Amino acid sequence: MSELILSAGAARALHLAAQGLDSARRRRAAKADVLDAIRRMEMLQIDTISVVARSPYLVLWSRLGDYDPCWLDELLAEGSLFEYWAHEACFLPIEDYGLYRHRMLDPERMGWKYSARWMREHADVVERLLAHVREHGPVRAADFERKDGKSGGWWEWKPEKRALEVLFTAGRLMIARRHNFHRIYDLAERVHPTWDDSRMPLEDAVRREFALRTVRALGLAKAAWIPDYHRTRRPHVDPGRLADEGLLVRARVEGWREPVYLHPAHLERARAAAEGALNPGLTTLLSPFDPVVWDRRRALELFGFDYRLECYTPAEKRRYGYFTLPVLRRGALVGRIDAKAHRKAGVFELKSVALEPGMRLSARLAADVAGAVRRCARWHGCAQVTVGQADPAPFAAQLAGALEEDARAAA
User: Which ranges of 8-54 does DSSP label H, i.e. alpha helix?
Assistant: First the structure.
């Protein structure tokens, strides 16, 4: 078989199709679609910032459209999902628990997430906390009163909170459910009673599985992209060897020096992309923690999109805003929107809208972006959308006009 050669646009189309971001859904989402979407991505990263919907809910909305966010909470409480460190803290399908068990059994390799020294120095706190959970059932960090007057980052958490986190990282506690997005911890054997470590796969097999799953989730991947997805440690799996074994397929992207790798599950779709038959039509807003953009280098190489989340940057040094949402339009990342949902007032505020350099203004562009914004606002329970500044400046009036037209059409 001759080597498959993809244009840059075809590579983007294949990536978005693998991620479930190529076209709008034809039917309303059901609860099972939430789990299917997470399985397709391999994981759903967790973040607590809530100027718009918290990231995991927004990542799902980008793929599913209108859906009930409670479904995610229910899937966790029912045991279809569990939480652990994957790319970062993530919701994961429960059937993948064994793939992460090696990390739990060797938590000292998890860096700042676990401190063996702290565990030794506070062994009494840890044992009291475990005894409390064993006797009284699930707990929240808020159930324990702060007694030293401190507050702040991880290093200043109250001892019980730190104990909960290190015990979670070590796999002795799991997240049984969440309430108002606050974690509720319980003993691992109560949350996942059917697990037995005799079922744990070998670590080399896990590394290979993570590499294969990453390529499948991304649609295509350079070798350098693969370790970041599951945050795997060295020694990294060589995808070239997996291709030699027939588990992956080598391909080329025009203008790229190194090869890319495809998962056989996407081979037919890749051929369609190469023939120009895969044309993404979806316009939507993405979370900063969406798999499409969480690897900033990959987003730059694949989309030419230089993205940085500025919520951790001092306000006076921000270029685009606190929590900018990348705008995906028909296979390209065309801009970013700094948005805020004023839920009580029913207003979805676009504080700033910045298009990528060279974007040509058009009525169709404005209509596409307005439609995505209006859908997102409606999902947030916000009937009104306001537009602040834009770059280029004329796009503000153009987008506002398209939003008004969209609202009239909906009415």
Answer: 8-19, 31-41
How many angstroms separate the CA atoms of 249 and 310, rounded?
Answer: 37
CA angle 90, 92, 95 (to 5 degrees): 160
Give per-residue pLDDT as tens, 112-124: 888 888 889 989 9
Matching residue, tokens 């992460």:
100
Which tokens go with 124?
């009494």
- Give the dihedral sign, CA 281/67/62/212: negative
CB 287 within 8 A of CB 301: no
Cα–Cα dist 340/359, whole Å? 24
- Report residue 297 CA to chain centroid gap: 16
**Cis, peptide link before residue 239, omega less than 30° from 0:** no
Alpha carbon distance 290, 258 (integer Å): 25
Spatial distance between the Cα atoms of 244 and 339, rounded to a whole number of angstroms = 47
What whole-number distance in Å separates Cα of residue 266 and Cα of residue 223? 17
- The one-character DSSP state at 139 is B
Per-residue pLDDT tens digits for 354-374: 999 999 999 999 999 999 999
The tokens for 301 are: 């190489």
Q: Output the six-digit token pair for 273.
A: 């992309």
CB 347 within 8 A of CB 382: yes
Structure-block tokens of residue 328: 């995906």
Q: Residue 144 carries which DSSP code? A: S
Burial class (CB in 10 A: 0-12, 13-18, 19+), 362: exposed
Give the residue from 293, 316, 324, 314 showing the smallest Cα distance to 388.
Answer: 324
- Comparing 299 with 315, the larger pLDDT belongs to 299
Three-state DSSP class for residue 19: helix
Q: Residue length, the chain?
A: 411
Contact 281, 330 (CB under 8 A): yes
| Number of helices and strands in the chain (H, E) | 17, 14
Residues 6+ apart with CB under 8 A from 39: 93
The greatest distance separating any two alpha carbons of the chain, rounded to the nearest whole angstrom, comes to: 68
| CA triple 20-23-27, angle to 5 deg | 90
Distance, in Å, from the CA atom of 206 to the CA atom of 90, rounded to the nearest integer, reads 18
- Residue 116's identity, in one-letter code, is A
Q: Which residue has the tokens 């940085």?
A: 308
